[in-house]
């Protein structure tokens, strides 16, 4: 018999399912959103200490303010006036995977549309199921402003995207670290056209601005400047707790609290994938 326990706390719906049963879309979406996808890390209002404001989860906030843009994470709750309550499922998926709103306007950075184009149909639907289950929160978020040109599109319409085979493999880790957790978006140096995936994948160097000051994403490649000197266990601890082997704390905006909910095999898959990246020195 399938066993489900439900926890509703501070506007977050969590489902705990017996591991032998197949997940429903809502269960899968709950895992992704509260685990590796960590969408709330950019879309939930936060207090000065970086923790979410209770009752405001996924209702939008200022994400980044730099020379290129002032970006706000939008309200993802089903409020019909200030959120996505009036959008269809297809419109939500198009916004996520193609970066296009129902009115035709383009969603700009730091939303990692280039990676999100690879989210499978099943996982995109699961994320929508989770968003539909949230309580609506009325929170009007300012529009983002860009001092750089945005592309007319991020490519042709996304067709069918099959779900990869899950497992503690580098292949599945590429899916998790790419389209799902977008690790590569934040941990790849920026070039003239955005993250330089072709030449500097995972080499770090992306600067983030916030209440903590400025933090720079680390090198995730198996170079001596990157993760070569860390064991898998040490990397898991760093990802899920924000603590280095020497006990020092890592800075925001890494969503350590969300990544702590990631399944052990998924963490193994991500690390296995990172070990396969071409070794790159830190950006100069």
Automatic annotation (TrEMBL):
GO terms for molecular function: electron transfer activity; heme binding; metal ion binding. The keyword Ribonucleoprotein does not apply. PROSITE patterns: CYTC (PS51007). Keywords: Heme, Iron, Metal-binding. Residues 24-135, 168-278 form the Cytochrome c domain. The keyword Zinc-finger does not apply. InterPro entries: Cyt_c-like_dom, Cyt_c-like_dom_sf, Cytochrome_c-type_DH. This is C-type cytochrome.
